[in-house]
Amino acid sequence: MLSGTPIVFVVDDDISVRESLEALIRFAGWQPETFASAQEFLSHPPVPVPNCLVLDVSLPGLNGLDLQKRIASDRTDMPIIFITGYGDVPTTVRAMKAGAVEFLTKPFSDDALLDAIRNAIEKSGNAIGRAAEIQVLVDRYEMLSRREREVMALVTTGLLNKQVAFDLGISEITVKAHRGRVMRKMQAGSLVDLAAMAAKLRLSKGP
Length: 207
Hints:
This protein is α/β, with parallel strands linked by helices. Helices cover 54% and strands 12% of the residues. It contains 9 helices and 5 strands. Strands 2-1-3-4-5 form a 5-stranded parallel β-sheet, with helices on both faces. Strand 1 (7-11), helix 1 (15-27) and strand 2 form a beta-alpha-beta unit. Helix 6 packs across helix 8 and helix 7 (161-168) crosses helix 8 (172-186). The two termini are 43 Å apart.
């Protein structure tokens, strides 16, 4: 696999479907990874590149909807495209409500699938980018002392230094010093930047 090449996972128990999708995906420039069952797919670890899952609804053992539920929490950057030969409204609704990005009924055109994969890969890349950005902020936030976290939580709600000082029972000069260290450690160019970082970290008042 080329480093950074988006990966398209395919789970379908029909070998002819797997082989044809593998060829189509590879021709489109992505890296295909095919599996005959949900259990086989679950043995593959998450990947750090944009990716998506082309998933058959009807599978032996763990079916597609059950697999979707199983990976919902730990593979949030993996959009799912369902494919099925037996589409029905209740199944489609359940899959889409659970976060599927597309539901295609066989036979579908190559273009329909490729468009769905292209959109899913873009969505995955955006999710990975956001997660990386948050991780950077978390790493910086963990460098703050308890008092600096308290000051950050309060100043980003719009309180003045003197109000923060009153709330924490410290001097205004001390608040200014803590605030300056917070700005440096978080690499915030302005209080507006710091407030945006706090919002992304979902800070509440207090450490």
